[in-house]
Description:
Layout: H1 7-31, H2 61-65, H3 80-99, H4 103-125, H5 130-143, H6 152-177, H7 184-197, H8 201-223, H9 235-263
Amino acid sequence: MAMETGQPILEIxxxxxxxxxxxxxxxxxxxxxxxxxxxxxGSACPKCGHRLSWWENIPLISYLVLKGRCRxxxxxxxxxxxxxxxxxxxxxxxxxxKFGLSIDFLIYLCFTAALIVIIFIDLWHQxxxxxxxxxxxxxxxxxAFVLANASWTDSLAGIIAGGGSLFLVAWGYxxxxxxxGMGGGDIKLLAMIGAFLGWQAIPxxxxxxxxxxxxxxxxxxxxxxxxxxxxxxxxxxxxxxxxAYLFWGKNIVGWYLNLVxxxxxxxxx
Length: 269
């Protein structure tokens, strides 16, 4: 099928807009754990306090021009900043290609942006801010009334299934071991995911997060000297599973349903 006239230009604009959103997400990642305003003051070097001019705040380009260092004190700038900008730009482009310019695109762009912030905050601080997940649950539920392929009943069931399933896992682990195995932030995060994606997403997200989390955990044991009590944040795996379901959910479910008959060789049920 031929690409529509103007489509490449529109996609470039979507990508650029996404990188600008990513620049704002970096502010959220940096300030929310410290309970600082994400509006004021303007961006500045954390070491010398140099206030960044407009040309030092251009997504991706400024990092390359400045060679990853502050112009004033030459302190290295974390690679997180261009990474978040690039990832947000690419995900914005993927969402546009999937949903077009629609209300679904805008809602899932907000959802994806929230997941990106959660991933990096949980990685660095091992917390998932309630200021994101709790309003996210309500926004996800209300969004079900306007999303093209969603219903409020699926969203409500997703909230209950998401939050309830991890609550039971956390309670069971604490009961059996006497230790905290999963924080409340993960429970609220999966409830938010269920609100946006419906109850159908919960089994897939849990499966994908468990598989990827296990792989990373085993790698940490093998290469970093971690032990079985080493805390590994689970939020990034839940968020990654949610993104995978958002883009490729039907393909994943179809692949699994085709795989089971090929593996199972016993008598029919």
